[in-house]
Amino acid sequence: MIDNSFYGQLNVFQTIAQEGSISAAARKLEIAVPSASQSLKLLEQKIGVPLFHRTTRNIQLTDAGRQLLERTEQAMATLHQAFEEVQNFGEQVSGTVRITMARVMYQLLLRPHLREFHQRYPQIQLEISLNDGLSHLIEDGIDLGIRFGNQLDEGMVARKLVNEVKEGLYISQSYVKQHGIPQTPRDLSAHKLIGYRFISSNKIEPMVITQNGQDIAIEMDTPLLCNDPEVLLDATRQGLGIGRIFTHNMQQQSDQADFIPVLQKHWRQYPPIYLYYLQHSQRAKKVQAVIEFLLGKTAEFR
To answer: Superkingdom, according to UniProt (predicted)?
Structure first.
């Protein structure tokens, strides 16, 4: 049923803006498309100006629509949070929690524990978005994010999950037989690298090592490019090149003994990994449940 209150109309408006279409917003809100369209029409009549430019192919915010979205996002997020807190009061923890992180962090921090989480909280639906880039929690409708570093926007909270992380360099026995083992950073230019391309920026991650306290980029031949850590691991196993694998992730591999570490004193170090979220969002029981679960499961890394 459509909520034709001002709050309900703003909710439909913001969802259309986030999803990019009326039909997508209707699906997300679980209402009929005509109801979503009617709600938007009533809001535009109430305000007195159009909020979207509509064509047969797309829908875009007008200047008035952009201003309304910017001025009401935080207030609506606060209202959503207040409603959820009241709804969850005294009840079993339930609802959807949206969380974003890079693929490598999913493999390290969440993948091993998915079954246990859903056994403990069967009424919580996790919606996992794997993204190498940074997400705007309010604009993207996300509850929690995981990323390196704790430099966050105003109004955010950061909780450390993992201490500093080293990016290890590994090769296989088959690679050694064909190419040998690099003994110094200078040797790397004659070796092969498994390349990694970031999905969000489409940029290729350069090969960076540490030498005399400085990060140094090195040009290397790259026989294979991928955008997934699992593919990178497979290519390293099969001897296609040097693989860059975080040491914590390597420890989770059942065949880690088959990977040969090289140039260990030159491994690059990354800042700690943090869980971040909007202030007060942890008051919702479902969000607090996920926060506490992740903090508990990562205690060994801190």
So the answer is: Bacteria
Helix (H, G, I), strand (E, B) or coil at 172: coil
Answer for the pair 242, 193: CB distance below 8 angstroms, yes or no.
Answer: yes
- Read off the tokens for 234: 């497979």
Compute the half-sphere exposure of residue 183: CA atoms within 13 Å on the CB side of its CA: 1
Pairing mode, strands 144-148 and 95-101:
parallel
Give phi and psi for 96, each to the nearest 5.
-100, 135
- Cα→Cα distances 91→56, 122, 123, 165, Å: 45, 13, 11, 39
Burial class (CB in 10 A: 0-12, 13-18, 19+), 169: buried
Give per-10-residue mean pLDDT for the chain (302 aa): 72 89 85 87 90 84 91 81 64 86 92 95 93 72 88 80 95 97 96 92 92 93 94 97 96 95 96 88 81 93 86
CB atoms within 10 A of CB 19: 17
Element (H, E) at 36: helix 33-47
pTM of the complete model: 0.68
**Cα separations (Å) of 208 from 136, 193, 216, 268?**
28, 11, 5, 7
Report the C-alpha gap between 63 and 51 in whole angstroms.
8
Task: Return the SS3 of 98.
Answer: strand
